[in-house]
Amino acid sequence: MADTSTKSDYVVGVDFGGTKLYAGVFSDKIENVGTARKSTKPQRGVDAVIERIADVVQEAVDEADLTLKQIKGIGIGAPGAVAGETGDIIFAPNLPGWKGVPLKKSLEKLLGVPVFVENDCNIAMLGVYVTELKSKPRNAVGIFLGTGIGGGIILNGELYSGFNHTAGEIGHMVLDPTGPKCGCGNKGCYEAFASRTAIFKRLQQAVKDGEKTVLTDMLGADLDDLRSGNLRKALRKGDKLVEKVIEEAAEYTGIAIANLANILGPEVIVLGGGVIEAIADEMLSIIIETAKDYAMPGVMDGVEIFPSKLGDEAGIIGGGVLAKRLAK
Questions:
Q1: Helix (H) or strand (E) holding 145
Q2: Beta strand extents in 146-202 (DSSP E only)
Q3: In terms of pTM, does the model score above 0.85?
Q4: Beta carbons of 89 and 82 less than 8 angstroms apart
Q5: Which of 68, 174, 218, 296 has the smallest CB count inside 10 Å?
């Protein structure tokens, strides 16, 4: 049982994803005292999703045997571009209808607690930085390969948001202007080559073109319900098509890292997201080798590249850290 501590002792972190919502309640020392999960159901519309976020916060607070009156702030990692001052979602490429949505204001009205909104991958990187990296490296970059690809940048020990508070959109650096269309409307973004969505599209197209894969035995010819875990199973069975597609995604990730290393000079590059969680072992050596090939000589010397072990926890921890820093 949680004690009846003062209001200033607890914060909530929320990982708001395209498919699921995950909330965690944290003590002042960022110790997790309760969690709750819910599916996002974006097809129900913006208002319904906002209500579901409020519900998952309430459920996590109940799980911790607390009340909202004991919560001093809620930090949310949201997909897409976020206006940090107002907490509005400017644009979420993978969430239909999420353009100019006043998320902070709407949730504060429903919950009566101060809400702080940041890009989901910035928040995840904050969680990784504080927990896994122990806030040590002065400069670090996080790249998260999931439905889309996002990133978080730590410069001089601080989360870097940039002039319009939209920095860190690593997935939308253009690697080939003649490349495939991206969810953001551009062509040839890194996300259009190496996200889970891009990998799945590439596999589905290859099957339509007559290429063979054990995935069709597992899931049928349309590859419906394909998950990152299926890729791991196919690779373990020596599937040549999946191997080729994953190798390409890993190479594009290496090129993206080389670009970032050339520009930012981080000492640590952390990889996360569902794709990395499922097949980091198969991707990592290709990613590192390609990054070294494409970076300027000397840039990658001593730079660590490794997969995060935090998984889903990164987002809620980062949200808790954000709320603790910003709530008065």
A1: strand 140-145
A2: 149-155, 158-159
A3: yes
A4: yes
A5: 296
10: left (phi over 0), alpha (psi -120 to 50) or beta: beta
Please tell me the distance from the alpha carbon of residue 277 to that of residue 284, in angstroms, as a whole number: 11
Looking at 132-236, list the stretches that DSSP marks H as alpha helix, in order from N- to C-terminal side. 191-194, 196-208, 215-219, 228-236
User: 136-307, what's its fold?
Assistant: Nucleotidyltransferase; domain 5 (3.30.420)
Residue 231: closest CA among 171, 276, 189: 276
Q: Residues spanned by CATH 3.30.420.40 within the chain?
A: 7-126+313-326, 136-307
Query: Binning pLDDT at 50, 70 and 90, where does residue 8 land?
Result: low
Amino acid sitting at position 105: K
By C-alpha distance, which of 61, 64, 39, 65 is closest to 52?
Answer: 39
Q: How far apart are the first and last CA of the chain?
A: 26
The CATH-assigned architecture of domain 7-126+313-326 is: 2-Layer Sandwich (3.30)
Question: Tokens 């972190």 correspond to what residue?
Answer: 13
Residues counted in the chain: 328
pLDDT at 1: 45
Say how far apart CA 200 and CA 141 lie, in whole Å.
26
Angular region, 55: left φ>0, alpha ψ -120 to 50, beta rest: alpha
State how far the Cα of 26 lies from the Cα of 34, in Å rounded to an integer. Answer: 7
With contact defined as beta carbons under 8 Å apart, do 243 and 236 qualify? no
